[in-house]
Amino acid sequence: MNDYKKKILEQKGQVAVIVTILIVCLLGAVALVIDVGSLYQKRGFFQNVADASALAGVQELPENRDAAIIAAADYAARNNVDIIYNCRDFTSEEIEISSTLSTNDTITVALSNREAPLYFAKIFGQDTVSLGAFATAMVGEPIQLYYVVPWLAIIPEGTTWEEYLDPGTEKIIHGDPDESDFLAWDSTDSPGQWLSRYRDRIINGYSEPLEEGDTIYARIINISQTTHATEDRVGIWDPFDDLVTYVESIIKLAENDTQFVIVPVSYEIEVPHHANDKWSEEVEIIAFAPFILTGTGGHGSNAWVAGRFIHQAVIVTSGEIKAFGQAGIKAIRLIR
To answer: If we measure between CA atoms, which residue out of 145, 275, 159 comes closest to residue 217?
Structure first.
C-alpha cells in the first residue's frame, strides 16, 4: 500500500473517532436540554402544589392548627403529592405551623426529596433526581377594606359584634330604625346626592378604603331604594347554606358571590324621632363584619331586606394586615 492510501485511511479513521465523539457530545447535549426542561417543569409543578397547599391550610388558622395540616396535606394529595403526617398529634416533617403576628397564624409547606424522572440521561446511568419546593402562607386581618356596603350594624357599647349580632340568625334591614338591625351610612354629612351615592354603594360597594377608627355618618335607611338596589346587586338568590360552611360552631364563607357583603360596625346611637333623610350623625367604625344577604320582601314602607352575619370570610387583598382574632374578615397570602 502506498503512502497516499495509508494517509487516506488514517484520515478516515480520525474522522470516525471525531464523529463518534461528536455524537456522544450531541447526545449529552440533547439529554441535558430535555432533562433540564423536564426538571424545570417538574420543579414548577412542586412549587405550585406547595403554594396551593399552604394557602389551603392557612385558611384554617389561627383557630385550628390540626385542620390546617389536614387541609394542606389533602390538597397536595389531590395533586398526587403525598405529605405524611401523624394522625395522633398532627405533626409532619413537611408542614410546620408557626406564629408571626398572632399565635398559629403561619403555615410552611416544605416538599423535599421528591423524585423526578430523567429521560436521555438514563444512558449515563442517572434515572432520577431529587427536587424540593417551599412555601409559607400567613393569615391576618386587613387593615383597610374596599367595597364596604352602606349599611351600619349597631351594637351596645362594650359588646363584641359576634356576640350581639349573633351569626347565623336572620337580621332585618328596614326603613324604621326601631324595626331595623341597621342604619345607613354615608362618607359625608352633606345630604346632596345622598340617595344616588347610597344606591351605587349597595350595588358596587364603597370605592374608597375604610379602616377601624374612621369616621362615617349614620343616616336613616330609605327602604325603597334599599330593596331595589339590593335586587339589582344580587340578581339570582342562592340559599344561605349553599354559600357557607359550618366548622363546629363557626360559620365560614364558602362561596364569594354578590350576596356576600362587608358592613362596618359601630356602637349604638340614639336616632331622634324627628329624623328624616337629611339627618346624619358622626360615628366611628369599631369593626367590620361579614354578612350574607338572603332575600327581600314586603311592599312600600313595610319592605325589608334580610341577611345573616357569619363568623369568618376570606378575601383577596394585597394591603397591610394585622393580627387576626377569632371572627371577622380574613386576608391570606403567601409571604415566601
So the answer is: 275
For 276-299, the pLDDT digits (tens) are 888 999 999 999 999 999 999 999
What residues contact 133, with CB distance under 8 A and at least 6 apart?
43, 46, 47, 49, 50, 110, 111, 114
Model pTM above 0.70:
yes
Domain residue spans of the chain: 3-138, 151-316
Q: What is the pLDDT of residue 232?
A: 98
How high is the pLDDT of residue 273? 85
Residue 142: pLDDT over 90: yes
